[in-house]
Specification:
Shape: globular
Order of helices and strands: HEHEHEHEHEHEHHEHH
Strand content: 5-15%
Length: 252
């Protein structure tokens, strides 16, 4: 469905148990491989990354993925664990099985530990990111470090403020902006990310909603609007994922 609508960035993971289905969809779509950007992630088999990537590629029916991520850092008991896993990721890239490699859910200590021995800088850190979880904002420790080292920010769950975290302080301004731009509140949420050079990752099982999300590419928010959403969003804290790993008020 997504491929039919023109979505060519496919974000998957071994733990989603959908790689085989994605592989079939790619094959049946007849979309040229070079048009696709396929991401998958490793965590279940993090202790055997060489076997994990081979298994994922077999399921995806691909020779390589465009982006391969460590799904989370919480498997590690030490800096050495993070560094060993990253060295294995570097080997995956060197072997041509992933064009680019990165991480997901990494906080500042995980990134700094990884970078101590890294030969290749992670290209991206895919994190939960939305107005109710801004990780200290662009000048905070995490995002500042990522910018300094050219690690792109990719946001998953960017629609949280209009889905799981509703009602909330952003309801009014999201409704106003949606009316102004003739789009849905979800598209405003996506645009808030995009206009800050954040790669927004979202999903839906509804074709109409996926089609609507494409409208997020037809307008831009003003800097004042972006700042206002950020300011209001910062008055509420909501974490949709990995709650067990964080204290209730931890915004890192």
């Amino acid at each position: 469905m997504a491929l039919k609508l023109g979505y060519y960035h496919l974000d998957g993971a071994e733990v989603y148990n959908t790689e085989a289905e994605v592989g079939v969809a790619i094959k049946e779509s007849k979309v040229p491989r070079e048009k696709l950007f396929v991401t998958t992630k490793v965590i279940t088999n993090i202790k055997d990354i060489p076997n994990a990537i081979d298994t994922s590629l077999k399921k995806l029916q691909l020779d390589y993925v465009d982006l391969y991520l460590i799904h989370s850092p919480f498997f590690a008991n030490s800096d050495s664990d993070l560094q060993s896993a990253w060295a294995a990721m570097e080997k995956v890239q060197a072997d041509g099985k992933a064009k680019s490699i990165g991480v997901s859910n990494y906080l500042l200590p995980h990134l700094t530990a990884t970078m101590k021995t890294a030969k290749v800088t992670p290209s991206i850190n895919q994190i939960e990111f939305h107005p109710y979880l801004q990780h200290g904002g662009p000048n905070g420790p995490l995002l500042s470090y990522m910018k300094e080292h050219n690690i792109a920010n990719s946001a998953y769950a960017p629609l949280t403020a209009v889905t799981k975290a509703k009602p909330g302080p952003l309801d009014e301004i999201y409704a106003e902006l949606a009316k102004k731009y003739y789009v849905s509140e979800g598209e405003i949420a996506l645009r808030w990310c995009i206009d800050q050079d954040v790669v927004a990752i979202t999903t839906s099982g509804k074709e109409e909603r996926l089609s609507d999300y494409l409208r997020a590419m037809t307008f831009t928010l003003t800097p004042k609007e972006i700042n206002e959403v950020s300011r209001i969003g910062d008055t509420k804290h909501f974490r949709a994922f990995w709650q067990a790993k964080f204290d209730e008020n931890d915004r890192s």
